[in-house]
Amino acid sequence: MTHELLKEIEKGSKSALLKKRIITYYIHNGNSTITDLSKVLDLSIPTVTKLVEEMCQAGFLNSYGKLETSGGRHPNLYGLNPESGYFVGVDIKMHSLNIGVIDFNGELVESRMGIPYTFENSIVGLDTLCVRIKEFVDSLALDKGKILNINVNLSGRVNPESGYSYSWFNFGEKPLAQILTDKIGFKVSIDNDTRAMTYGEFLKGNFGTKKHVLFVNVSWGLGLGIIIGGSIYTGKSGFAGEFGHTPAYDNEIICHCGKKGCLETEASGRAMHRILLERIEKGESSILSETFKDNPDVSLETIIDAVNKEDMLCIDIVEGIGYELGKHIAGLINIFNPELVIIGGILSLTGDYLIQPVRTAIRKHSLNLVNKDTIVTASCLKERAGMIGACMLARSRIFEDTL
Questions:
Q1: 290 and 369: one domain?
Q2: How far apart are CA 292 and CA 18, in angstroms?
Q3: Whether residues 227 and 342 fall in one domain
């Protein structure tokens, strides 16, 4: 029955689209009565009752008993059936994969962090990615026929609607999402990694009731997720949020995008790695000095660990990056006037070493009247944000609709 509804949605039948809207409502609001649902959808109670009964018979919804009220009839509560479908999320890191699966209700069923994988832009890299995903899916103790979608996070320019990635695995005319679908054997969607992290925090993190939020992803690169009025802002082609490629410096450092002086060249994990290596080579002391001599390709995780072990050189560098980042976030605050700015990505795992300089720079460089509206905080989901967000996007790509 699940796949029958998916086919109906793809055909665009009126009944299927109404059912899709009902699922969207329950995703964001939890269990509720038919009366509440009919008000939101602006449909008659008999119409909603018929749709809900059909969805219960199909296994999408469950009846969760009577709603306790102070008097009169006690209406039935309905909500999503968690076992009616599953959604897999894949978050690609430079040297590993984080993969998880959620049920239809959005609860994490299983996850694996740090699956070994070298992210390289080649056919071999793509094939290996597909093998790792299939290995994870094969290991799941659930009905594989109920896996409705897999979402893969990628950095850089991603158009989730067309399924094209313009930064990774862009080898031919066919959309990457379709290539992955063919290779893995399940429906696959793709999206930008920072947008996935933002969406994960929105549904499962520390947004609360806030509707105007910026999520700054400070990883190897630097990205921005934007929530406006409770909805993710993607831009015309899905490319919104390329914060790291703001022209910010006259430093002659070539960014990986090919241009010089991008913000990312001085405020990112890649910048942290380069600056630390340069300062060690100049004779400054760090607990990583010998490590860099043996192998300059030190992982960012190793550097973050050194910061949290109070290595003074690493702390000094991350604080400098935080201040530079904060100056430019100040500009975003002046433009967007957000309620909340969340700092995520691997550099956020240094905690106040990064966050406090960001706050200091924001106070100095943004308009006082504007920044008073804004709370600046670290990611609640931390390293799990991208994986959880990927799972949630896998579900939203199939079922969510704008109410």
A1: yes
A2: 58
A3: yes
Q: What stretches of 243-375 show up as alpha helix (H) in DSSP?
A: 269-281, 289-294, 300-308, 312-336, 352-365, 368-371
Return left, alpha or beta for 308; rule: phi > 0 is left, psi -120 to 50 is alpha, else beta.
alpha
Q: Are residues 57 and 141 in the same domain?
A: no
For residue 14, the domain's CATH number is 1.10.10.10
Residue 150 is inside which H or E element, if any? Answer: strand 147-154
pLDDT, tens only, 343-395: 999 999 999 999 999 999 999 999 888 888 899 999 999 999 999 999 999 99
Q: How far apart are CA 201 and CA 218, in angstroms?
A: 15
Examine the domain organization and report whether 272 and 355 are in the same domain: yes
Report pLDDT digits (tens) over 339-357: 999 999 999 999 999 999 9
One domain for residues 166 and 104? yes
pTM of this structure: 0.88
First to last CA, the chain: 24
Using one digit for the tens of pLDDT, what is the confidence trace for 30-39? 888 999 999 9
CA-based nearest residue to 392, from 31, 130, 4, 105: 105
